[in-house]
Write a structure and sequence with these properties.
The complex is a heterodimer of chains A (about 325) and B (about 290).
Chain A (H helix, E strand, L loop, with lengths): L15 H11 L1 H15 L3 H23 L8 H18 L3 H23 L5 H20 L1 H4 L12 E4 L2 E4 L3 H24 L1 H11 L1 H6 L4 H27 L9 H14 L6 H19 L3 H15 L3 H10 L2
Antiparallel strand pairs in A: 1-2
Chain B lengths: L2 H32 L6 H19 L2 H24 L8 H22 L15 E3 L4 E3 H23 L1 H11 L1 H6 L4 H23 L9 H16 L4 H21 L4 H15 L10
Antiparallel strand pairs in B: 1-2
Helix pairs in contact in B: 1-5, 1-8, 1-9, 1-10, 2-3, 2-4, 2-8, 2-9, 3-8, 5-6, 6-8, 9-10, 9-11, 10-11
The chains are: A mainly alpha (about 325), B mainly alpha (about 290).
Pfam families (chain A): BPD_transp_2
InterPro entries (chain A): ABC_transp_permease, LivM-like
Protein name (chain A): ABC transporter permease
Amino acid sequence: MTSPALTVSPSASARKPARFKSLVTKYRVPLSILALCLLPWLLPSKALAVNVLIYGTVAVGYNLLFGYTGLLSFGHAAFVGTGAYITGIAIGQFGVPWYLAVLMGVIGGALLAFVMGALSTRTRGIYFSMVTLALAQLVYYVALQTPSWTGGENGLRGFTVNKINLFGFEINFLDPVNKYYVLMMFAALALWLVSRILNSPFGAAIEAIRENERRARTCGYNVERTKLLSFTLSGTICALGGTMSALHLAFVALDSLHYLSSGMIVMMTLLGGASSFFGPFIGALVFLVMEDVFSLWTSHWQIIVGSIFVLFVLFLPKGIWGTFLTKVMR
Amino acid sequence: MDTELILMQLFSGVALGAILVITALGLSIIFGMLGVVNFAHGALFMVGAYAGLWVASLTGSFWWGLLVAPIMIGVFGMAIEYVLIRPLYGRSIDDPLLLTFGLSYVLVEGVRIVFGSDGIPFPTPSSLTGVVDLGVGFFPIYRIFVVGVVFLVVVLLWLGLEKTKFGLIVRAGARDPAMMKVLGVDISKVWLLVFGLGVGLASLGGVLSGPMRSVNPEMGALVLAEAFVVTVIGGLGSLVGSIIAGLLVGVVISMTALFAPEMATIVMFALMAIVLMIRPQGLFGKLA
């Protein structure tokens, strides 16, 4: 990937929009948590709000790799699914308390991301997408062939979490509002983490690799190791999203590991706007609301969503939020 | 385990591999020439199988389906290149990939609307049913036929690329498109034809594989993953690599199916992981 030299253009006309932008950037974590607090009261159903929360977290984690490091992975469903499966198996088959099960899911997803990342970051450019897709399919087929653990094609059931003990309070987890706000804490944690990563020197390093890999290497960055770390962190946050979905649904579908699920994460991220902080969450919101609305009209809603995605790639490659930032807030 | 069974399984691996070869060749030609990884390749394979079935049922002859469907879908592929992919040249290499992924969504759902979500059986043409005794065992005629067709297509493709003026332009264009423009070649027309050819190969693979399995809207998903594995093992853009890796993967899958059936789909990915560790650019790929 070659890109022209990075030039910082002095923006003459930028007064108010620039201030708006820097304020939004500065308070991006509190702002998104505020938005998340209001979300269930703005959407038609609480279940949809929980889904937005889960996929928003997944997309934000994915975007660390896609938007900020510039690596288009088609295998992140593997981490989401692994997080969900490990949580489900730990609760259902070993009776592990839910918080430990979540931790195990996240660690398991992180380890898998490390291994897959170590293999796939050896490749360059377009190979990367193909290799991540193929490795994730490997995970899918392993889950399909080990039904005694995963339930095979039928998915994993039988690990319903009814009550959650949080800081001494007993919370009824079956109540959708309680469920939303418990899971929101995980989403908030993920957002805070990603924001911290992006503000760190490491965050600058991954963006440098995205802009010009050769130059980053010349500047002394260990490109391979940085990519691997970004891959692992991104996979870890996706695994967190997976554990959230396992707690939410009390079910893990085999399809959650399929590369079409990875593609859905990619679509959400791009719809909202890759390489922007709010973009992936907005993309997840828009995608899931579209699914919710269109599936009322037709069972073939995917043809509409697919067409909209194609149009976005053609005409709005920066996504909704990215376009808003560059066109409106210039 | 007797040798006859092993030989038969080996041959069915070659037949399976032949389908992989032709599909992966389409992917590889498009990438080598246009630098585009066609994520809709599996979906177009599936659309090709449906088109073959449709033409065959319309004309009452499998042969028309085999002949007409790849041309039809190839032309459709040219339309895709012209309308959707052309605007993306010069942008990030990820953009055509993302676009074709979205397109595969649309194609799969479109086929579901037209032909329904359930699988449809694809009858083997009556002249190709049955088995033939080759002295070492009985082999299904249809699979022998598939291997023969793929062999013929590969030879024609090789002759076309190595011995014709068009092939010369294609090979030169893959190496240096700017120089081709300077020399007065309308390279965009070549890209159009190459994309159509690659898509045509995918749909030929779809039609050929039809009688070996039933046809359903989701069949393209596995095919895409398989084609990726083959091109990653063989080296993206290398035609020889696609051929050898395709046969290798086919044989490995069916031999594994004989000894450990539950490992059959897993083993090709493991093979790819091993190749990646030893030669990240693939067996016949060049270092970027």
